[in-house]
Amino acid sequence: MEALVSGKKRIINLDSRLLSEPLIPGLSDDVAKLCLALVPRASLPSMGRVCKKWRYVVQSREFITVRKLAGILQEWLYVLTMDAGGKESHWEVMNCLGHKLSSLPPMPGPVKTGFKVVVVDGKLLVIAGCAMINGSHVASSDVYQFDTCLNSWSRLADLKEARYDFACAEVNGLVYVVGGHGGDGESLSSAEVYDPETGVWSFIESLRRPRWGCFASGFNGKLYVMGGRSNFTIGNSKLVDVYSPKCGSWCGSKNGVTMVTAHAEVGKKLFCIEWKNQRKMSVFNAEDDTWEVVALPLSGSSRAGFQFGKLSGKLLLFPSQEETGHNTLLYDPDATPGRQWKTSEIKLSGSCVCSVTIIA
């Protein structure tokens, strides 16, 4: 029996006797897997500690599939919040109703900035970034994975090239990283892809120009890279680089946004807030390559900041720590006009750094 550990395949030490034993005595393994899948999500970490064979089942991709077929997947919101003083951060976990459930164990490795987070196969990946080591800024190639079913961190294979301030997104079950700054602070045009099945990072075709401070999203099986800066543009770039995994090549347009401070995908649309106006959202529809503008129901300073989250198909806007007078806002893109905005009761213990939604 095999499992992916630290980016490599490793044989789990299950002797032939354990391999031949059923998951649950008296039941076929298919039925036993269904029984295990019916356990509430909050109890899965305890179930993974029963034995090595159960642990292997719980951390497998098949386990998520069985839970999906059984109709019992649960959506939880994971928010990385900055503690008061801005020196430490921690992950808060909330259920689909926005009720706080727990906090994650501390992230391994040194404290970093410029890293990116992405979700694949019900697991949270924290990728690369820049760490302060012996008084110097050092680009990292580290990749850590949090298994939401086992409530534990592990290290995956390193990136091929250390980087920070790059773009990152999941497309069709694969994880892509693009551009950023490298080990010597140089701007990068290189791009890599990670396959969770093999646990291996591989280079793909590079961008036509170095790009950093950008972000990425996946739509219609393609990777969209927007925002940030490029060596070949004055100021912030409006270029959109689009990568087709099927063709293995890049194409582009000039229909992008600049200086994006928050972004999130909800349904088939991309929501962005630009630094120049924090009172409007730019909404991208990849189906017809168009943008529309949605005004926020707020008054006051246009510089007040927000970070996005998403839950149950709705967009959450978390106010910056400085904007203590503002509540968390909720935007429902499917509601009738005039009823799309509400105030959410979700409150974080600190300012939001980033967030992800994980269904498992």
TrEMBL record:
It comes from Eruca vesicaria subsp. sativa. Pfam families: F-box, Kelch_1. Keywords: Kelch repeat, Repeat. The keyword Repeat applies. Transmembrane segments: none annotated. Coiled coil: none annotated. PANTHER family: OS02G0202900 PROTEIN, OS02G0504900 PROTEIN. This is F-box domain-containing protein. It comes from the Eukaryota. Residues 25-63 form the F-box domain. InterPro entries: F-box-like_dom_sf, F-box_dom, Kelch-typ_b-propeller, Kelch_1.
